[in-house]
Amino acid sequence: MDDTEEMAATPYAEAIGPLPVLRDTTTHVPAWERETSRMGVADSAAHALFRGVDPISPGTIFAKQMDRLPHALVPSLADLSSSITVVRRRREVGYFRRFSSFSEAFHDPVPATPSALELVLPPPYLLPPDGEEPPAPYLTKARDARQGLTGYLVGWHQGEYSSCPLALRGQYYVKAPQWWPDYEVPYGVMAEPPLVLTYAREELRRGDPAAWSVFRAEWAVSTAVALLQAYDERRVVLLYPPRLRDWIRSVGATNIAADARGEPDDEVEGKLLALLRLLDELPHTSAFVERLTNRAPNRRDRAGWVSVVLEVGREGSRALVDEDLAPYELPYSMAVTEARLAVPNPWGAAVARRRHLVRFPGGGDVPPSSAYEPVPPVSAPPEPRPPTLVPPRRGDNAERSQRVPRRIVAADALEHGDVPDHRFDALHHLPPRGVALGLANFLGVDADELERYPAGYLVSALCHLVVDVSQGVLSWCRTVPEEGSTDLEGLLNLVGRRALRDAVTRSLPRVREGAEDRRRRWSEVGDGYPEGPPSRRARLEEYPSGWGR
């Protein structure tokens, strides 16, 4: 018998009989009797599972599994596994026979990292849909079974898992290893469990080195395929843990992207490597996960992916983040960068200015030997220099004003007179959830745009702006000529850390005293908040009272 005949498989309905219908209990017993009459399956581990879970009616447990296998095939005796008595779908025909050959030749301990040599099935691994793919709920339930301290590695076809008592699961299923959380995919990722878990479950339970070597390699390929499919279908990158990415690299992007002839697909390989490089640049912290969750709190899977776009240039493919995840500085796409410059939000404007900020004299990123330009002694006569753009001091005479060229600057500065007092007072008892609405009233931006961010992020953005403006003044002062050093010293003192600290500490008592004074006046008038000076800009729209409600 040649390999073609040995690997041949017949649909279960044609070789054995009709599949049991889960909702029709009258079909369970006849289907189970036909199943047990097959050659070579009576003593299999699969049948032991059915009888162990429900000794009275094992046909019902058998029906729960076969309900997920409408494309089940009857394998040849050489391809018959003890863990499952059928072949789930056409592309898996011959797998157990190949695994048996691999296991017989495997005599080494489990390698430190997986490799393509441990893959039982040859490429291609990126296969087009053939109508036999498991539905997404099956993959989700398989992932849920792996969670927690009592999780088990379960195949998507094992619909009987929920019927198995907790005390018996250790006898029939593979316990999730302690290291498994470091290699688990985020919630919502449609990565199929390794095939070795289906056809060599008993070998995995016994700790067979060959089975676990194949398991790691197949899991790396399966998750890499899910990563590529997620980008192709949804334009997102899945947030895989670092160790899982190491497994994918160990197997090799060239091998994962190979076609049926074993030749690598350069385009697919470049795409996979670009996504992995971007994942290396993204932070893997609880704060970043919270930032993603806040973008769509009603989506459980939102913390597991980031929108990306792939750019192909001379240096190859490069993946860029295609959504604004401020305050994180990430490799953003051009669309996000342009949107940051166009939308007047606090963090985007600060980041845009910071990117073009001259930190040190000469425009370099490395500080000079001295952070400040040397100032000549007071008694030394100043050297003749052409007129420079030095900001005049208050009280300068007309001669100095004529000597310094004037600038015509258009600025949209916000002053205290633009905002009525009652808007400031409304912030005194503002809860955290109302910070976004209160801040939007001052900035003239859409409140819905800021409400997506937690109060801590908005406060961080304000602190960043203070530091950024201070740094901008310092950088400008360090690049101007030495003339007017007295003016520069005053500016530096205004934006120093000590001056900012003193200004904030002095402002708090004044704010409290002013609020109490206005509250007393309001109580005397008895008409509530008086209307302050009208806003001089249309962008400061009136919001309804009660920001914190």
Percent helix among the residues? 40-55%
What strand order characterises the main sheet? Answer: 5-6-7
Tally the helices: what do you get? 24
Instruction: Report Rg.
Output: 34 Å
**Alpha-carbon distance between the two ends:** 78 Å
Biggest sheet descriptor = 3 strands, antiparallel
Beta percentage is under 5%
The low-confidence parts are 1-7, 345-413, 529-549
Assign an overall shape. Answer: elongated
**pLDDT average, as an integer?**
77
Number of strands: 7
Q: What structural category characterises the helix and strand content? A: mainly alpha
Element layout with pairings:
Elements: H1 3-6, E1 10-11, H2 12-15, H3 28-36, H4 45-53, H5 58-66, E2 73-74, H6 95-105, H7 136-145, E3 152-153, H8 169-172, E4 174-175, H9 195-199, H10 201-205, H11 209-234, E5 236-238, H12 242-251, H13 253-256, H14 266-281, H15 286-293, E6 305-313, E7 316-321, H16 334-342, H17 346-355, H18 398-403, H19 421-426, H20 435-443, H21 447-450, H22 455-479, H23 485-495, H24 497-525
Antiparallel strand pairs: 1-2, 3-4, 5-6, 6-7
